[in-house]
Amino acid sequence: MDNQALGLRQLPQELKLILALLQERNHDVYQNPRLLTTINWDLFIELCVHHRLYPLLYPEIKKQKGKVFPPSVVETLFHYYQQNTFNMLHLCGETAFINKLFTENNIRLLFLKGPHLARELYGDYSLRTSNDLDFLIQGQDLETAEKLLEKHGYEKEDYIRTVLNDWKWRHHHVTYYHPDKGTKLEVHWRLHPGPGKEPDFNDLWARRKTGTFTETPVCTLGKEDLFVFLALHGARHGWSRLRWLCDIHQLTGQALDQVLLKKLLKASGSVHIGEQALRLSAILMNTAIPEGKGSFRFKKRSEKLADRAFYYFKNMVNLHTDPVPEEVSEYHKHYLFSLMSYPQKAVFLLSFLYPYPEDAETMPLPKPLHFLYFPLRPFLWAWRKTRKQAVT
After folding, report:
1. Which domain of life is it from (predicted)?
2. What sign has the CA pseudo-torsion 116, 121, 127, 132?
């Protein structure tokens, strides 16, 4: 038995039921009543919420009209489904507002996640969750964007600590929140946190898609760029929410240009991550992997990465709520390093030699002397480490 088959067997019954419903093999569920008698329905609901899959599952469960699923389960999932529908309609309006605001001020933006992604992948805003709006702009437009957002009631939520402008490549977005609207925005100047190679904004813009669901056209990533973005995003989070694999499943069925997709993955040093995404999607979602020119051949490394993702499924890992358990944090740290290509690992290790904000806090220096943090960094790091050990 291979590792992935073993991983599937080790998943809780409740998650197996969810996967069966997602794989459109519902007849297997309904013709096997013994499976349903062993289900812990509280855990089933918890998993539906954790993986953000209740918008997809509720319409299917509703069809059974309480014959298969307990009425309390149907009612609870309806509540989540209804709340999500209201939220997505609200975000649709905010998408139109932000798009118009930035366009009128000559800021090009590409929406990454939000209601447009639900419609593009699932054909309906209500079938995918989204807590905020993510969009990408050029770094040179960040200051103008901040002034516009603050003028219209948005408040910056996270102020990035930085020294020697390391924020430009170590971080990738800043968050804004509107207290009256209750809307959160993630304004990206990079698709992913650094260090790492990023596609040029103008190239992304040249391959963009344009939607017409608001008064002004909304621009989004082209399908192949979207696949790369979703694959790297999902992988970075260990695919700990199965919603991200559902996105890969839906997108893979949209006749992607395999040659272009391979080219984009190679450019970012991420072919193995694209293969991991497809492999997991095939195992868990029954995704049909496209064949022909430019098709993927799963290599040993991508198989290993797929194996490692099962840790997140079996343990219902939540990386978004602090504190993350030490065991999970340690596993995730090694997993992230395993995702990197050899050049990325080299750049990542070298990046530790670049000064951190903590260095400036340990030994404040006038700005003209900040260059001294380069030779001082090993000593400042060692000093902090020694003090930390002394305290503990």
Report:
1. Bacteria
2. negative
> Shortest CA distance to 130 belongs to which of 99, 86, 173?
86
CB 148 within 8 A of CB 170: no
Question: b vs e for 161-195, b when ≥16 Cβ sit within 10 Å of the residue's Cβ?
Answer: eebbebbebbbbbbebbeeeeebbbbbbbbbbebb
- DSSP-assigned letters across all residues of 113-172: ESHHHHHHHHSSGGGS--SSEEEE--GGGHHHHHHHHHHTT-EE--PPP-STTTHHHH--
In the chain, domain spans: 222-347, 355-391
Whether the Cβ atoms of residue 188 and residue 172 lie closer than 8 Å to each other: yes
Q: What is the DSSP letter of 324?
A: P
- List Cα–Cα distances, 375 to 105, 162, 352, 370, in angstroms: 43, 18, 12, 10
Which one-letter DSSP state was computed for residue 370? Answer: G
Q: Rounded to the nearest 5°, which phi and psi values hold at 164?
A: 55, 35
Rounded to 5°, the CA angle 15-16-19 comes to 90
For 349-376, the pLDDT digits (tens) are 999 999 999 999 899 999 999 989 899 8
Q: Which amino acid is at 331?
A: Y
DSSP SS3 for 173: strand
20-52 pLDDT per residue, tens? 899 865 556 666 666 677 899 999 999 999 999
Reference 315, options 328, 333, 306; nearest CA is 328
